[in-house]
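Researcher: Structure prediction, please.
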Amino acid sequence: MKKHRISIYDTTLRDGAQGEGVSFSAMGKLMLAKRLDAFGADYIEGGFPGSNPKDMEFFSAIKKENLSHSRIVAFGSTRRARTKVKADPYVRSLLDAGTPTVAVFGKTWKLHVRDVLRTSVKENLAMISDTVGYLKDKGKEVFFDAEHYFDGYKDDPEFALKVLETVEAAGADCIILCDTNGGSLPEEVNEFTMAAAGRVETPLGIHAHNDGGLAVANTLSAVRAGVVQVQGTMNGYGERCGNANLCTVIPALKLKMGHPCIHARKLARLRDLSLFVDDMINLRPDSRAPYVGRSAFAHKGGPHVNAVKKNPITFEHIQPEKVGNKRNTLISELSGGSSVLLKAVELGASGATSKEEAREILNNLKALEHKGYAFEAADASFRILIQKVLKKHKSFFDLDGFRVIVEKRGKDQPCISEATLKLRVKGDIEQTVAEGDGPVNALDSALRKALVRFYPEISKVQLTDFRVRILDPEDATAATTRVLIESSDGDDRWGTVGVSENIIEASWEALVDSVEYKLFKEEERKGSGED
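Model: Predicted structure follows.
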């Protein structure tokens, strides 16, 4: 049976921006819209033009861009109660945005008509009819968001369906059924969507929130009931618990349900797009996100890794490359020889192919993990461990010593951190002093300051994340500390680990691994002629 095409409607720039900690600059909104267009989103909701100047700035700027696929949508409400539609400033702002498509929301739950709008059922229907009809007369493609449709249907099915009939009579191009409170169950969404499809002929869409953790399931349930448009946000960002996550919905539609939506070639950019959105709003990517997360195709247990090596479908529901991801072999004391060999190859240590070498690496790994090291998020440290076991490691510098001072000169004064560092680099002695926001930042600055003359490429390295774990809290301040550091040079990210009873020493270990990994990769790149 041929599956109908599903239209993808992205509302990251509007509904996603309502999420806690999510904010886009005007330029950021423009950059994301262009990425969504290149990805193949059919509609991009740009914002609420009547609510703030930034959204109007976006609508003005986006007109100058030559989008190849997406249609930009301005979002707003129906006219206010007891106000003529032509005189309503919010309706006017939808026209001022100059978009080919507009989306307006209206009430389908009597509770909201009574307690929020504080008007009559008759006036509510008139507000909807007047607004949709007016915007259609202005030549717009009009989508109607049936706000609280599922709650409204549970409360009074006939009223909710009457709203949809009113929208259809006014000429809307698509009616989007909204689970605005995010509390519906998939079987309810399926049943109530089919009820809507039985009452109106206008195409239907679905807009689900995730308050019950079911936004994706509800979206797919609505698709099974016949909707032709799905709305959601990248990475599921949105108000409260967020919206339906398009990074999960799209591959499910395409790869699991067989519905045409995003071209396979563009679907392979999904993980990159997901990471781009996280970077844009400065939020850490969810490593456990389905399809696009770093752990989505991660394998740790020895038997699992061995099985995947023989046939990936034993423990992978799709090929990671279809969504732009890759297999990730996790290394720990639970690992077997197969895991070590696969991880070594994955990290580029092609020489580590014998069983004897794998066994020696594994023995070193288990000894270090017994001391508190963890390499699951520290691939760079594990690569250096491999090099050391294979007697291929090269030290780019040697430490003579360091001193870190933290000083506070009064109760109202900030702490001052200063690090003094002495290294031997290529036969020279380098001694540097640097200040930082904290002792680790000061030490990091001093290290890179000492090395940059010898290794200019180190200037690109930035410490992007710093995490501390107390391994034996019962020992209080004498407890062993594990430090995980994430670094980036703008192109790649890598993780390193250090362990000590002294947090500064643990941090130093992780910092040294981070820097040496970068220098090692640079030498490797130059040796392969990739300049």
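Model: The chain has three domains: 7-280, 298-389, 398-527.
Researcher: Thanks, that helps.
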